[in-house]
Amino acid sequence: MTDTWTTLREVLLPDGAPGRQPGRELERRLREAIRSGRLRAGERLPSSRDLAGQFGIARGTAVAVYRQLGAEGYVVSQHGSGTKVADSVAEPAVPAETGPARSWRYGLGPGLPSLAAFPRSAWLAALRKGLADLDDVELGYPDPAGLLPLRTELAGYLGRVRAVVAEPSDLVITHGTFDALTLLAGALQAQGHREIGLEDPGSQEQYELFANRGLTGRPIPVDDEGIRVDVLTRSSCRAVLITPAHQYPLGVSLSPDRRRALLQWARSTDSLVIEDDYDAEYRYDRAPVGALQSMDPDHVAYLGTLSKTLAPALRLGWMVPPARLLTDLVRRKRLDDRGCGSVEQAALTRFLSSGSYDRHLRRTRLLYRDRRDALLEALAADLPDWRPIGIAAGLHVVLQLPPGTDDRALTARLADHDIRVAALSRYTHTGPATPGLVLGYAGLTPDRLRSAVRAIAVQAGG
């Protein structure tokens, strides 16, 4: 251990104050210490019994803290060897999309649409007309559920495009998916939930988001038919977050059998399924399958966002929760931020009603399909041993690498040469991960994508 301290408590609680919930405070401070580098990779941590004694908590609580941090990839526990800080965890598990943007020579990180394709003129026109539509009174504090004209337009759009079953009064306008998840997490925690099922592989940030609301994320494995409902059923979770139309990051769709099994589980246990429909508008081989929510609105909370179709900077999304949660979620929205901005909502109302959103989607579907095709052709020519999967939809592909490849080391080597990609293993929380890369292709032209693949091939060969 570090020679400047004798107990972990000295590092994590220099003020000596564990807070009202010492287990959660311990988990949070351990995570921060590892990410900041104060606890170095490979450093041995106290046993669960010792940890419990230092912080005055039950041993079972200490075990749960280590288990959660292990699921998030921060620590590694081995029988007979104790618990230690995992290697290479002083950075977020997935390349961060926050903070000042770095200009990469080849930016192939997942999670963004083509920001250059944002329809600035059409949006400015919608903004001017939407603002003109607002009465003076509507420039005051907004309805926390959202402007009724926007909810009306969205209810029609979602019913037409995604088969969502919703009246305008059923919708809540949000600042995007994370805002919706934060509201839902608070509602679940208040109802007595202490954990939530999360897809594995899946987003690392979801674990942090739910932990901040008192919920432990439980990894549920995903295979080529989607989330393993049999594993979920054996767990103690009574809520689960899934991406059924286009699983993130693997790109698979939830199979019909799994859909039925998942909803049967939700009905039989009165559980909640949170459906993140983040990029279902982009399907290239056929029409996308309708939203899961349409099969059971009483047990599915449907989430949508503009972050993948227009731009994250707009900070607009929507939620269609089960009716039993609606009043509480609107109350929480009011208390959290008093609602989303009315001017932006009015602009989106105009953008939808004028047909501009539909036109933008038609144009960008063609744009992204051309870019995907260019990427796949370049991969077949320059990296034929790398197998792309999840290619039928979305804004990224997963490349399965030859067995034994260290995808994290490769990702770091590519970053040294100004090429941004994401290691698939960083999305995995349980068991050995198939080595791979997650490549976002929406932001580069076909020529740039071909050049990027050639540059990756050079570094991979080195």
TrEMBL record:
Domain HTH gntR-type, residue spans: 20-88
Keyword DNA-binding: yes
SMART domains associated with the record: HTH_GNTR
GO molecular function, one term: pyridoxal phosphate binding
InterPro entries found in the cross-reference section: Aminotransferase_I/II_large, HTH_trans_reg/aminotransferase, PyrdxlP-dep_Trfase, PyrdxlP-dep_Trfase_major, Tscrpt_reg_HTH_GntR, WH-like_DNA-bd_sf, WH_DNA-bd_sf
Keywords per UniProt: Aminotransferase, DNA-binding, Pyridoxal phosphate, Transcription, Transcription regulation, Transferase
SUPFAM superfamilies for the chain: PLP-dependent transferases, Winged helix' DNA-binding domain
UniProt superkingdom: Bacteria
Family of the protein in this entry: In the C-terminal section; belongs to the class-I pyridoxal-phosphate-dependent aminotransferase family.
Protein name: GntR family transcriptional regulator/MocR family aminotransferase
